[in-house]
Structures are given as C-alpha cells and as structure tokens.
C-alpha cells in the first residue's frame, strides 16, 4: 500500500551521503551544500514526499506552477529532472533515486531517514523489489546500526587481508575484480558575446543549456551542474573568455573535479544581417591546459537549438564518445522552445534563476504563454 503524501518539515537523509533540509531548501552531500535551482529542488521535495509512489507530470505542474501560468512545462520538467540526476549522480538507465515511468511520470526509489520521526515503510513497488516493504530507519537506529556496521567493516577488512595474504602467488588478486569505469567529467563554463550587445546575451544561455544536455546524454560523460559552474564563477570572479591559462584551469579542476572545460565565443549579427550566429568552441584539458579540440558552427537565431546540438555532437566526437542514443534524442531536441522569441524568454528566465532572481525569472517565463511553443 502506498504511503500518503506528507509535507516534510524536518531534514531528510537518503543514499549514503545526501541530506535535504526542507526549511532552508538546501541539498547537501556529506555536509557540503549542493547548488540546485528552486524548480528542481521543489520537484525533488515533491518526489521525496511521495516516495514510492508514481508522481505524474500533471501533479508536478500543479505543484510547481499551478493554474493560469503558461510555460513550456514538458521542457522545464525534463530539464529539472536532468539537473537533479546530475547532482545526485543518478544513472537513468539504472536509477538509485529517480525512476522514469515512460509516458507517466517519476518515482523516488531510495529509502529515506526522517530526522526525529518514527520508522516508516517504503512500498516494495518503489524499486520493483518483491521482497516486501523495507523499513526506513530513524536517526537513533541509523547511528546504532552505523556503529555496528563500522565494527563489522573493520573485522571484514582484517579477515580479507589475512585471506589475501595466504593466496598463492600465482593467482592475481586483480583477476576477479573488474576495474571500475570512471566517467570523464566536462564543465561548460560559458560563451563570450563578441557583439557586446546586451540583447544578444540570451544566446549564451541557450547554447550552454543545449550543449550541456547533448554532452550529458547517454551517461558516458559527467557534466558538471550549471549551479556548480555559476558558484565557481562567483568565487573566482571568472570572466567569460575564449580560453584560460593552465593555472586557472588547475583551480577550476580542483573546485569542479572537471577533466575538461568547454568555453568559447559567439558572434550574432542581429536582425539587420539576417540573425546569423557564428559559434566557436574550444575544449581544454584542465590538467595540461592544452586545447584538445576546436569546433566552429554557423547558423541563425531561428535554429539556435539545432546549432547548439550540432556543436555538442562535434564535441562528443572529439572526445571519442558515441552519438546521442536514439531514445534520448527527444530530450535534446526539446531543450529549447522552437519559437525563437519563446527560446529567448526561456533563456533569459533561466539566466535570472541562475542568478537567484526568481521574481524577474517568473516575469520572463510568463511571457512564454503568449507564444506557441
């Protein structure tokens, strides 16, 4: 039987290191705050409240936007779920936290620990587990079992070391241990507006959003969440540039744990010259500082999403990553609204959200209702 939705007021722990504080709307990992925009945070809270249940897209729309607000909700929900998964490092193919129910909605899978609450059961269908309900541990139980687990771990390690020490020398200890596949990580740092005209700034956000979606598709690469990128820019007072020096790149690597960065510039000619856009991207290795690939693409503001997608596809090829899986093409294609004016409002609204200006963001996103997306 599914749990009844509960408006959570106390900190929630899930996974091994994650904690969500509903009162301050803060998501932490191992005590360290993670940057996540208001909409993804609100959706995550809703999924946790309804843990184990199917939450439909219609219910998400009602919770986040309510009635009378006209936005590209499908695109917004897809983008928010993608950002939540990036922050939680959750593989949509083998989810630990958020399961997609095709054509229906989403389900939160992981058991949670509610601080200062009684243990409660999580329905078995949440993870497709036929073993019956699992119990969510209280904080005291968590600490008690954590102590027991720690002692058990020490004993297990000691026994393992003794056993391994007695293995015949002709047996390789690594033969039966498959090597972990470590995904390379990429941070899309931003694009410089060479036209210097403020009305063209939205193109940078539109390009960055679509390129990030393209690179993240297929889960072969880990794309650093844009919230982390924005925080880095503020902390380092990092200006937009076509490339960075080795020292700067090493600082970026240390803060974002990124193997590569994508940066560059674009030149938009404006309406008087046919709204042409020229994009130049560079892929830099954060360890060596070397520019390992350069990508140049031409298009127009009307097909800005397609222009960004082509740029992202070229970067995937330069990194030796396979093309976007067929089943994820739709998610890339709807990153931006098709209508150019709607795309501009969406990108400008997203930029305001990243700057924590929710009021201005809402005004811009409401304008989407006047355009057919």
Could you characterize the architecture of this molecule?
By secondary structure, the protein is an alpha+beta fold. It folds into two domains: 12-137, Winged helix-like DNA-binding domain superfamily/Winged helix DNA-binding domain (Arc Repressor Mutant, subunit A, Orthogonal Bundle), CATH 1.10.10.10; 184-336, 3-Layer(aba) Sandwich (Rossmann fold), CATH 3.40.50.10070. The chain has eleven helices and 15 strands. A five-stranded antiparallel beta sheet has the order 4-3-2-1-8, with helices on one face. Strands 12-11-13-14-15 form a five-stranded mixed beta sheet, sandwiched between helices. The two termini are 39 Å apart.
Question: What's the arrangement of secondary structure elements?
Answer:
Blueprint: E1 12-14, E2 18-21, E3 26-29, E4 32-34, H1 38-49, E5 55-56, H2 57-64, H3 73-88, E6 98-101, E7 105-108, E8 112-114, E9 121-122, E10 134-135, H4 139-165, E11 184-193, H5 202-216, E12 221-223, H6 226-236, H7 246-256, E13 260-268, E14 276-285, E15 291-300, H8 304-318, H9 329-333, H10 340-354, H11 358-366
Summarize the structure.
By secondary structure, the protein is an alpha+beta fold. 39% of the residues lie in helices and 20% in strands.
């Amino acid at each position: 039987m599914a749990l009844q939705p509960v408006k959570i007021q106390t900190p929630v722990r899930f996974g091994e290191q994650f904690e969500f504080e509903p009162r301050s709307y803060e998501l932490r990992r191992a005590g360290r705050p993670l940057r996540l925009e208001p909409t993804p945070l609100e959706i995550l809270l809703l999924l946790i409240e309804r843990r184990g249940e199917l939450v439909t897209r219609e219910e998400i729309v009602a919770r986040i936007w309510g009635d009378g607000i006209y936005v590209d909700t499908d695109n917004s929900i897809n983008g928010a779920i993608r950002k939540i998964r990036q922050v939680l490092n959750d593989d949509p193919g083998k989810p630990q936290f958020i399961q997609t129910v095709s054509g229906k909605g989403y389900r939160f899978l992981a058991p949670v620990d509610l601080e200062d609450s009684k243990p409660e059961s999580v329905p078995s269908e949440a993870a497709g587990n036929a073993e019956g309900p699992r119990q969510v541990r209280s904080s005291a139980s968590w600490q008690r079992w954590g102590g027991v687990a720690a002692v058990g771990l020490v004993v297990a390690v000691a026994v393992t070391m003794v056993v391994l020490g007695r293995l015949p020398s002709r047996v390789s200890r690594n033969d039966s241990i498959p090597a972990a596949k470590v995904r390379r990580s990429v941070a899309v740092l931003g694009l410089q507006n060479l036209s210097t005209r403020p009305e063209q700034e939205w193109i940078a956000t539109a390009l960055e959003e679509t390129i990030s979606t393209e690179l993240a598709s297929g889960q072969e690469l880990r794309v650093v969440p844009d919230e982390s990128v924005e925080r880095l820019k503020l902390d380092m007072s990092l200006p937009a540039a076509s490339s960075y020096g080795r020292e700067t790149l090493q600082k970026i690597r240390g803060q974002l744990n990124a193997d590569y960065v994508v940066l560059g510039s674009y030149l938009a000619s404006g309406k008087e010259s046919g709204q042409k856009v020229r994009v130049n991207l560079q892929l830099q290795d954060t360890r060596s500082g070397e520019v390992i690939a350069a990508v140049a693409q031409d298009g127009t503001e009307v097909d800005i999403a397609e222009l960004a997608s082509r740029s992202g596809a070229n970067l995937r090829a330069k990194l030796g990553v396979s093309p976007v899986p067929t089943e994820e093409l739709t998610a890339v294609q709807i990153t931006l609204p098709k209508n150019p004016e709607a795309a501009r409002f969406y990108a400008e609204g997203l930029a305001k959200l990243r700057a924590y200006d929710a009021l201005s963001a809402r005004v811009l996103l409401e304008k989407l209702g006047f355009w057919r997306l």
